[in-house]
Amino acid sequence: DLSRQKRDRARLERQVAELNTLAEVANIASSAQDLDGLLKASVDRVAEIVGADTCYVTLWDERRGQVVFSAASGPDHERFRALAPSGREEEPSLPGTALAEGHPVIVHDYPHSRYYRSRLVFNAPLQSVLALPLIGNEQKLGGLVIGYFRPHTFSPEEVGTLERAANLIALSVG
Question: What is the pTM of this model?
Fold first, then answer.
């Protein structure tokens, strides 16, 4: 049956694309000279691979009990890193929530969510956001956030691929 063959081919193409993505992230993780270089290269590549408008990493600061901005894709990297944590917030941050809950958190209408932070909007407000925890050796390390300026539906396959990429980044950080 031709339609079954097309579905099977599409599934295999998605699997190959996922393996290529994970191989690229693993290659970046194993070849980076320092943590900053690892994180910047990782977020740039993840954003490019999934076609996201932005991707960033926060790292967990145990002493402060909050996430700290560490790397962002594209031209906003230095502005992002310069953001000081705003102290303990009434509402939890999106990457902090993913980290606390230990699983991905998807927000489809970010500007109207409890996670929205106007100081994080550099270009255009994000609409759809996925935050993934970075956990290595059972230690909370931070969060990986992928965002789109327009509505985006995160498929289960896409979330799974990004979870595996986050796990590779966490292994490198931890």
Answer: 0.80
